[in-house]
Amino acid sequence: MTGVLGLLLGGRARRRWVHLILGGALAMPYVLVGSVVVGPLTGVDNVFGSLPLQLGAFALGLPIAALTSLFPLTRPLESAAVRALCGIGGDAGGELAHGPARTRAERARTAAWFTLHLGLGGIVSGMSLAVPPFAVVVIVLPLFAGLRDSPLVLPEVFDRPWALALAPVAGLAMLLAVAAFAAACGALLAHWAPALLGPTPADRLAAAEARAADLAVRNRLARELHDSVGHALSAVTLQASAARRLLDSDPEFVREALAAIEDTTRRTVGELDAVLGLLRDGDAPGTAPAPTLASDLEGLLRRTRVGGQRVTATVDADPEALPPLVSREAYRIVQEGLSNALKHAGEPVALRITSADGRLEVTVENPLGPAAPTTRPGGGHGLRGIADRVRLLGGTAEAGPSGDMWRLHVRLPLRGSA
């Protein structure tokens, strides 16, 4: 019994009832417009003196309400009212409209919702005004004999003793019926609100695709930051360490190391500015171009060697002839491979870049060393980034120990990558 009363008169049910009453209040101007039309058509001066004519004016006003629902603020205002009063929360509440209807389908669904809200609200409002006073009179009828002769209580019904004894029960049943009808109408509106005020399946699919595209862009930018900044920090650390050790014995080497540090940091700051410019909403992208094998392979090798790392490079491919996308991604793969060698492994490092059979192959090898681990703690992000780049281009990547060497081998297709 308590659960039933909670459903009929609980806090959520009362808020939905208020929402329906607001709908009835919004329906009144349209009913008045309908009465102006119904009165002359029927020749009746007082339309509100007849229940059938009132219903006719109400039915005539609803199409007018549907037309006025095309006003831009109708949809966001109705959505706000639903969130506040209908108990629509969580994902469903977030799906409700925040702005005006823009497409024909959205305007049609808004008109359907507004008509449903005002229609049910008008009925519930009329019942809420008329039934409770009558029900109260019926409940107290056995206590006040004078009320039994009133035409409002149908004296021919309550002139029998058994009917009079059941009058309080009948009055309570009327009140419960009004509450049950209001609760049912409120639940119906809450059920239909996401469908009529929210996005269509096509809208949800488009939003999901937009979120996926945004996430893909941000993941790509994260990979760029990891590869660019991570390699720069590794190279600068190695160069600074070598310069410190040889500060007194080899000033020329120190000058070269400091120049390499300056060049590395300048280029990295430019790349960092470009990436952060894309991440800041409303900012224009930075002007630093993305490095490629054609534009900066030699510079990358030079900056790596300045720190004392021995790197041998065999390039059996024309970087200028590579598709720009492959050249850019291959540069990042080489950069990450050299960065891993700087951080984790011994030297020398062997780099091979070859092009044959419509594929670009990049191989980076370096000795594990007697105490080097076969797996590299902390190196998973870089290898995962390489795997992501290769997968997006439709290639393959292998990384791991091979005998006493650590080997990174990547194959990238050249056809269809432009």
TrEMBL record:
Pfam families: HisKA_3. SUPFAM superfamilies: ATPase domain of HSP90 chaperone/DNA topoisomerase II/histidine kinase. It is an enzyme of class 2 (transferase). The lineage of its organism: Bacteria, Bacillati, Actinomycetota, Actinomycetes, Kitasatosporales. Residues 218-282 form the Signal transduction histidine kinase subgroup 3 dimerisation and phosphoacceptor domain. Keywords: ATP-binding, Kinase, Membrane, Nucleotide-binding, Phosphoprotein, Transferase, Transmembrane, Transmembrane helix, Two-component regulatory system. GO terms for molecular function: ATP binding; phosphorelay sensor kinase activity; protein dimerization activity. The chain crosses the membrane at residues 20-41, 53-73, 112-145, 165-190. It catalyses: ATP + protein L-histidine = ADP + protein N-phospho-L-histidine. CDD domains: HATPase_UhpB-NarQ-NarX-like (cd16917). This is histidine kinase. InterPro entries: HATPase_C_sf, Sensor_HK_TwoCompSys, Sig_transdc_His_kin_sub3_dim/P. PANTHER family: NITRATE/NITRITE SENSOR PROTEIN NARX-RELATED (PTHR24421), NITRATE_NITRITE SENSOR PROTEIN NARQ (PTHR24421:SF10). Its EC number is 2.7.13.3. GO terms for cellular component: membrane. It comes from Streptomyces actinomycinicus.
